[in-house]
Design a protein that fits this description.
Length: about 325
């Protein structure tokens, strides 16, 4: 994948972020998500890639566009074949109710690089580069926190653990607190939460808990590009989800995946803030245009670029939709 492609992908997340940010705080999460999907699909049409969506808005019969298996891009001769994992609006409720932390994200890999994860749950454990190699999903949260603290040369009491505020995490939260670590609960958006562990200024050291499996693959791409570490294990809710996973090629439901297994080979990742969060500011509108804040990363070089863009709608009418 050409390095210039990474910069082109940012335009895709920018368009989706701008579209959904228009509806911030309106209270309609479905509409916020739909306009992001529409804008992202249009933006992909401008990219000279031969792309296949492996993680998207659902199966073909569930989503009119950006569905799993959809081909996107101009697909001109010589266009790179890439697999794509995307979420046009991660944190739909956050955007709909004007809360912090919603983003638009796209991850890309060479063909076959991204795990075709089923739409089920995944237990996740993610840390930044300073704690790489210290995590083990076979061990308890307390054991992991002690290992992470030792690797980072801090006390467990210095660590901040981010997790989704869900009833299923009651025991996890209780154990983390008993171990002495601080807990930060989030309503939605564990892709952003996992990525936050890789940036010192966020104050987030660890992501723990159960969230969506597709989101785990997207997060793994970003974590690989920043040099962090992550492990994930599928947590199917019923026999139907187990059968679906097997149809998608997963033979060992209990397998613990590393970041490298979730997102293999060369990967790139781009995200644009919709509402202001830990590492990206949200879209700011002004008369005749808007300002966006994005990040783009490549695993090949480890380069992380933060991009602040000013868009003039009279010059880019497609962005004003």
């Amino acid at each position: 994948m050409d390095r210039n492609l990474a910069m082109e992908v940012v335009r895709v997340t920018e368009m989706a972020a701008i579209a959904s940010a228009r509806l911030m705080g309106r209270g309609n999460k479905n509409e916020s998500d739909q306009v992001a999907v529409d804008a992202m699909r249009r933006a992909f049409d401008a990219l000279n890639i031969d792309g296949t969506v492996v993680i998207g808005e659902g199966e073909r019969d569930e989503a009119p566009m950006l569905y799993i298996g959809e081909r996107v891009g101009r697909r001109e001769p010589g266009a790179p074949e890439v697999d794509i994992a995307l979420d046009p609006l991660e944190g739909t409720n956050l955007c709909a109710y004007g809360r912090p932390g919603s983003i638009s994200v796209v991850a890309m890999s060479s063909h076959g690089g991204l795990l075709n994860a089923p739409d089920t749950y995944m237990e996740k454990l993610a840390v930044g580069p300073r704690a790489k190699g210290a995590i083990d999903l076979t061990k308890s949260p307390t054991e992991n926190l002690r290992a992470i603290a030792e690797r980072m040369k801090v006390y467990v009491e210095d660590l901040t653990v981010m997790t989704l505020d869900r009833e299923r995490h009651a025991d996890l939260i209780k154990e983390v607190r008993a171990a002495g670590a601080r807990v930060r609960l989030i309503e939605d958006g564990d892709v952003a939460g996992a990525i936050a562990t890789c940036f010192e200024g966020t104050g987030v050291d660890v992501l723990m808990g159960i969230g969506g499996a597709p989101e785990g693959v997207i997060a793994a791409a970003a974590i690989r590009a920043t040099g962090g570490d992550m492990q994930g294990r599928l947590v199917p809710r019923n026999q139907g989800e187990i059968e679906r996973a097997k149809k998608m090629g997963i033979t060992d439901i209990h397998k613990i995946y590393s970041a490298e297994e979730l997102a293999r080979g060369e990967v790139m990742f781009a995200a644009t803030g919709v509402t202001t969060g830990d590492f990206l500011k949200g879209v700011r509108f002004f008369g005749g245009g808007c300002e966006t804040h994005s990040v783009v990363m490549r695993s090949k070089t480890g380069t992380v670029r933060f991009i602040q863009s000013v868009h003039k709608f009279d010059k880019k009418p497609g962005y004003a939709l």
